[in-house]
Amino acid sequence: MTHAAATVDQMRPPYPAERGLDVYNTKLGMWVFLASEVMFFAALIGTYVILRFGATGEWAKPGIVLNIKITAFNTFLLICSSVSMVKAYAAIQDGDPKKMRFWLLMTILGGATFVGIQVFEYMHLVEHGFTPAGVREGSELAGLVANGTLPAATMGLYGSTFFTMTGFHGFHVTCGVISMAYLYVTKALPGKYSQQDYRGIETVGLYWHFVDLVWIILFTIVYLI
Amino acid sequence: MTTVAATAHTAHAHHDDRSFIRKYIFSTDHKIIGIQFLFVSLFFLLIGGLLAMQMRWQLAYPGQPMPGGGILPETMAPGGVILPEYYIQLVTMHGTFMVFFAIMPLLVGVYANFLIPLKIGTHDMAFPRINMWSFWSFFVGGLVMLASLFVPDGAARAGWTMYAPLSARHDFSGASLGQELWSVSIIFVGLSSILGSLNYITTIINNRAPGMTWFRLPLSVWSLFITAILGLLALPVLSGAAIMLLFDQIIGTHFFDPAAGGQALLWQHLFWFFGHPEVYILILPAMGMVSDIIANGSRKPIFGYHSMVFAIVAIAFLGWIVWGHHMFMSGMNPTLGSSFMVSTLVIAVPSAVKVFNWMGTMWRGNIRFHVPMLHAVAFVAMFAIGGLSGIYMAATPVDMFIHDTYFIVAHLHYVLFGGSLFALFGAIVYWYPKMFGRMMSEPWGKVHFWLTFIFYNCTFFPMHILGMAGHMRRIYDPTQYTFLQPYQPMNVFISISAFLLFATQLIFFVNFWWSLRKGARAEQNPWHDNGLEWSLPSPAPHGNWEQVPTVYRGPYEFSSPQVAEDYLPQYKKLPTDREPARAPVAGH
Amino acid sequence: MRSTVIPVVCGVMAIVGCEKGRAGASPGVAQAAESVPVTAQPAASAADGATITGKIKFTGAKPVNPKIDMGDEPKCKAKYQGVPTDELVVVNPNGTLANVFVYVKTGLPAGYTAPAPAGPVTLDQDGCRYHPHVLGIQVGQTLAIKNSDGILHNIKAKAVKNRPFNISQPTSMTSERTFSAPEVMVPLECNVHGWMHAWLGVLPHPFFGVSGADGSFTLKGLPPGTYTVEAWHEKYGTQTATVTVAGTETKTADFSFAAK
Amino acid sequence: MHWWLPLKGSTFAGEVDGLFLAITIITGIAFVVVEVGLIWFVVKYRQRPGRKAFYTHGNTRAEVIWTTIPAVTMVALGLISNHYWVKIKGRHSVPANAYPIAIHAKQFEWQVTYPGADGQLGTSDDFTVRNQLHVPVGRPVVVHLSAEDVIHSFFVPVFRVKQDAVPGMQINSWFQATVPGNYELACAELCGLGHYRMRAQVFVHTQEDYDAWLKQAAQEAAQ
To answer: Is domain C18-258 given the CATH code 2.60.40.420 in the classification?
Structure first.
């Protein structure tokens, strides 16, 4: 855009509150985008619910298939990263860029670790024979299915829904980490955030809390119940 | 700040210094993006029409070699004779191209992009770069869909609704890569639509010109706003469903595969939960733009502006609870069927209100029949038919007979062609001067309109009769059924009308291209309209206004006693007008 | 519009290399494919090299094949005097079993390659049945699928090692396909006529045959060596025999299937 | 070639056609009002030099009227339709004495299983015939629909009956034929490349003819 005036985003403080709502465009835009994200996850989760409660025979036992402990720790980690995000936000509101950088970095690390652990978890699961297509022939889990510990009928559905839902959540976390890292390098380090203008932090923060919230729901319905 | 604004203004000066690529290819200017959408989706409109022509040939002359069909590969039409598997690909791709790559981008991609900033009075979209990505995501999706026609085993072939498990299992459909490319392409379209919608919504909420209150918005903007909300919330559901379908196809998940515990009806619920709001995405913007054109053509304020707005909102809300009326015969719980029937019949009411208000607008008007007005009036007439024929389907016992027959085909074409497409022809002619600075040929426009109107009705009205005979949709050769053989002459008649209808559209395309270079230079406000866009020179310059105009009144002040001439622009300050409460923000 | 589409079509066709079928397979070959025994191999090599021949005996009660109800396909029904039956088990008058696919399973020298014959193997759909019911083809050799009925047939090849396909023939026409990998057997079926089944054996060499009206088979032109020969029947499964041949001698390997 | 609906071949064909006619009358009136109104306005209020349009923003009473009338009509129509819907497709609509026939749809044929002499499905004397639906006249018949592979749709135009057959589900659909004769059964849901030929013949017999046919067919099936 040649005329900077047209896009508020490119303006430096003091940036004007928009006409319409007293919210700047990027924040409003993020809220709108999150509405659409809600519908996306609603579709995936709704599918899970319909398939699970429409299924004939008992549902797969998460406790046996998955490693709940690691994931519980992972959940804790993600919640912490949400807290550190809040701290970063608070820091820049008090006009402390140094503190903000630290907490933003913590958030990035937290998110990255979460994704790492999830990748590890996937490898582990596939190795033991739990795949999106169901239980792999001749694998460890196939034995459990054979001796009736696990229901043969619903393992396929569980694999399909589990990997799709957690996979897309992982994808969202990855996007969040990348965008935070981008902001950290291009905005935070050069000290472009100030008490007057911290829109980037606030906007990415909204996204991050949303992703966190989605995970808490997923963890409950996919791992615990 | 003022300095920023100042530099900005110098940048507005009408020669701008961007490279050709930034200016016309990877442009972030909402007008250029709108025009990009226009060219690409007009191309897909032609493709969709071409596919339809092949279907019509096969239906009129089953098993006879199609003229020029020889160029098609043996896997589609050996010796020009269309194969059944190619026919169902035609059915599928015609629907897909028309819905996702022609009508939807023409309405939303083109006119939401072009009109919103111009009509609400701002320099550009809230997120110009996201806007650019929205176009390119759509473009990639289109290319993928086009390519899928030519891969081994051919394109997707489960109908544009992609009912599982036929779409999910290659051994059932006989397609392979084409089926997967369909899902991929749809995911791109979904992304494009979501990016676009969040842009439109943010822009309309936040960036209206001073004085442009909600109830001073033109109905076109209102309908595009509601459409954007529908798109924002509906498309993610489709994307999710398409992703699951793709996983079923390539990594062996079992979402829609009953053989492994999945549910076949799940796809239908997901698809139609998206699909019914989609139906309104395909008609609401048309309604909005027609409202603008009818008020202009009648030289009268819109009759019942507020109820028009509430009708749009009502349709948008009800649109979420009627998806089941596509599934009355699907084995869904009949009690659900009852409730879906009632909600469906209720949604007819706001549509009726709109039709009557359009008539009320024309009543005691001073009607000018410029080409856009002709198309707008045709829209009302045809949409009325399409809406009324919808009532037959809504009544479940009747639907039990006409579901999946040509009655449905007739109905949906009366709404999508008679409705959306007529409105689009009108809109293209109407805003052409603001896009390209020239007028389209009036006489040829009228020739195109009348021929289209005649052949269109000859093509689609008889389909009601076929439907009443029980003629099924999507069948390759009706003569296989003795009870359909007597209707073959009607199929021939429909096909010939369809060929003429297609030929007529070439007039429009020639007119369109010819006028780009040779059309008469357009003045600033050729239709004597009130919208803010007409305060700009034609074509509208990059960045639109240097200082956005202030709005003093609603958009439909035609034949107002306050002034001598029969229109009173929103931006025209009369001595009696007071400045709006909130002053324009610096730099805007 | 066409003018812009055609290049696209051709271009993309060229890229993805969609197989283009040429109509009309030479009837001579068609005969060969149906007559017994089938030996898809050049005559030159037949002179030198050994031969394995044999008969497929059948013991036990002759099972009755299920009737086929062609009630709604008058065109096909007209081609039969009596009620047509399935070809699940075809026992010849001389007490031998037809439609048994016999082929060299193992024993060929490593890296043995045989060029695919030029002529196609024809699978004819006549009277809503496949002719032949069991057939063999070499990797890369053309399978000409012929529709002599003039009504809709679709051919669904449920291949695993090869690329599966499902194509239709609404009228009298011929489509062609080739197979890229050895696979015994590839089931072929028509979904318009649920009873129509055929079995296709795809091999990298010409040493295979199908027992016919006299229940015998012949594998010609074998290089010296010890071979595992397998006989396959769609209902009675497989049997194997080990045969050692040298020079141009002819050895016999008979198989015997018992009714189940 | 009829310009109206085909022969009424089942007990509820009359009701469906009646509703169809009722809707045609309602929509016909609306159609005339709208189209004639449009043409009238277009002619009467076409542009004339020196005339200015009547400046008004609307009329609340008029709008209330033309909102209420459609609303009332639609709700009424909904109630009437629902009455027949429940009667024809409702949960408990299948008559107790209905004669059972099982239809299994697969690409691309209808496998019709008859209950044999004992009139019970799932017994040893059941037998299956391909692409032929024989039913007795004047007796409710309940069809147990199932599908092998993809979604098909059981559609007999003269009976005005249509019901999708969905893999993984068993759906019951009933009708009572009223006119003996030979009709057609079509697949109404796109089910693949052979969809257009997924056709079966429907024979409506008198009870005695039906019994005779059943006996003979059972014998043929037995051998």
So the answer is: yes
Same-domain status, D196 and D124: yes
- Same structural domain, D183 and D109: yes
Q: What's the token pair of residue C83? A: 């009620």
What mean pLDDT is predicted for residues B431-435?
Answer: 96
Q: Using an 8 Å Cβ cutoff, are C192 and C154 in contact?
A: yes
Touch between chain D and chain C: 3 or more Cβ pairs under 8 Å: yes
The answer to whether residues B347 and B322 touch, using CB atoms and an 8 Å cutoff, is: yes
| B476 in reach of chain D (CB within 8 A) | yes
pLDDT of residue B586: 39
Q: What is the 3-state secondary structure (H, E, C) of B340-367?
A: HHHHHHHHHHHHHHHHHHHHHHHCCCCE
Contact B524, B531 (CB under 8 A): no
Residue D70 has pLDDT above 60, yes or no: yes
Chain B neighbors of A156, CB-CB under 8 A: 253-254, 260-262
Closest residue of chain D to B405, computed from CA coordinates:
D188
pLDDT digits (tens, 9 = 90+) for A149-190: 888 888 999 999 999 999 999 999 999 999 999 999 999 999
Distance from CA of C192 to the nearest CA of D (A): 5
Could you tell me if residue D6 is inside a domain?
Answer: no
Give me the sheet containing D99-106, strands edge to edge.
Answer: D127-130, D109-114, D99-106, D140-147, D171-176
Q: Are B257 and B168 in contact (CB under 8 A)?
A: yes
Beta-carbon separation of C21 and B151 below 8 A: no
pLDDT at B582: 57
Q: Mean per-residue pLDDT for B503-532? A: 95
In this predicted model, what pLDDT tens digit does every residue of A125-135 receive, in sequence order?
999 999 999 89
Nearest-Cα distance to chain D for B364, in Å, is 6
Looking at chain A, how many residues does it have? 225
Residue partners of C106: CB distance under 8 A and separation at least 6:
C227, C228
C259 strand-pairing partners: none
Count Cβ–Cβ pairs < 8 Å, chain C vs chain D: 34
Structure tokens at B522: 């357009």
Of B216-220, B308-312, C17-21, least confident by mean pLDDT is C17-21
- For C67, phi then psi, to 5°, come to -70, 155
DSSP code string of A175-188: HHHHHHHHHIIIII
User: Which one, of B219, B215, B218, B323, lies nearest residue B275 by Cα?
Assistant: B323
Interface contacts B/C by beta carbons within 8 Å: 69
CB within 8 Å: C152 and D197: yes
Residue B542: which region, alpha, beta or left (left: phi > 0; alpha: psi -120 to 50)?
Answer: beta
Site from C3, C6, C16, C192 to mutate, B interface, most B CB atoms within 10 angstroms:
C16
Work out the minimum CA distance from B65 to partner chain C, whole angstroms: 12
CA distance C194 to chain D (A): 8
CB B440 within 8 A of CB B512: yes
Going by the DSSP 8-state scheme, the letter that residue D131 receives in this structure is: S
Predicted pLDDT at B6: 37
Region B226-250: mean pLDDT is 96
Pair D204, D180 in one domain: yes
Q: What pLDDT band is residue C6 in, cutting at 50, 70 and 90?
A: very low
Residues of B in contact with D15 (CB under 8 A): 397
Q: Which of B577, B70, D131, B361 is nearest to C193 (CA)?
A: D131
Count the domains in chain D. 2
A74 and A66 in contact (C-beta within 8 Å)?
no
Q: Is the pLDDT of residue B18 over 70?
A: yes
> Domains of chain B (ranges plus CATH)?
32-535 (1.20.210.10)
pLDDT of residue D197 exceeding 50: yes
User: Please, do chains C and A touch (3+ CB pairs < 8 Å)?
Assistant: no
ipTM of the complex: 0.89
Position B98 scores a pLDDT of: 96
CATH number at residue D21: 1.10.287.90
